[in-house]
Amino acid sequence: MTLKKIISTSLILLFFGVLPAQNVLQKANTFINSLSEEIKSKTLFNLEDSERFNMNYVPIPRAGATFHDFNETQKTAALDLLRASLSEEGFRKSQEIMELEKVLRIIENNDADKMPDGRPRRDPLNYHFCIFGNPSKDKPWGWRFEGHHLSLNFTSTDGIISSSTPTFFGTNPGIVRSTEYKGKEVLKKEAELGFSLLHSMTPEQLKTVVFTDVAPHDIVTTTDRKVKQVEQLGISYKALSKAQKKTFMELLDLYMNNYEHEFATGFRDKINKAGIENLTFAWAGSLKPGKGHYFRIQGPTLLIEYDNTQNDANHVHTVVRDLTNDYGEDLLKAHYAKDHKH
Fold first, then answer.
1. Which Pfam family, any one, appears in the UniProt record (predicted)?
2. Dihedral pair phi/psi, residue 153, rounded to 5°
3. Phi-psi domain of 275 (left: phi exceeds 0; alpha: psi -120 through 50; beta: other)
4. What is the C-alpha end-to-end distance of the chain, expressed in Å?
5. What does pTM read for this prediction?
6. pLDDT tens digits for 232-254?
7. Domain ranges of the chain
């Protein structure tokens, strides 16, 4: 059975309610129990291991087992864990980003470009699974799914997903111009809503929204474990018109809707408590598609970045950072403090 068939079959099962979408703990243990001791040695790490913070989104050697290591049962279990950790929309995007590796292999036509292990650099199976700690209701643990243009980081405390950030999605090509995938644009809605909000601004508002006419070459937070001080720029939510506020919230919800439902609900509550009126929207670069552009939504607890500058502005990087709880660090501190008292 191919990876594509496994994905399709699992989606059918999910639709009919056979695969509970939120039971991450069960899915994690099913996945671990399916692995041989050899594969476990590649996959399992201590929760405190520094590897947990080794985020990256370019095609480099990584820790963790990949689909190349798995038999069909293990592939299915791995994908079930990923699906349970995301919304259906987030899962779809992750699979389509992996498929873009096939496009790059065709359009780059460079068979000599290999990873150190001899496999092609562009490889839809070269995505890595790492489990940190022992999946349990009582003790914190985490896991990561990562490869080219994907870095999905999850932490569980008290039996639920307590952190799903940093969350990185990327696409190259942003819009596929050739091959059988021509016209595919995985992050299309992000681009459309960003430009829609920008183009709704009055000339006076644009003076506040656009902070430079040259977009940064990449997201400014890159792979930092902790987000360094990023100046909050742009127009505040409270300065928007009613129609602009609606578009702003559609864009924010688009990002929140990538997450598993219960986590997304908690993340939204956290943003609301910090004050929607304290969020800002800022833009850099071209005001039209086709040239380098960048936007961000920022507030006391949240930073969303979207950058499309590379490959003639047809190469997207976008990330969500929880400024207080990336990698679950804030909730882990609270958990350990509670345990210490007991």
1. DUF3500
2. -120, 125
3. left
4. 50
5. 0.91
6. 999 999 999 999 999 999 999 99
7. 3-165, 188-324
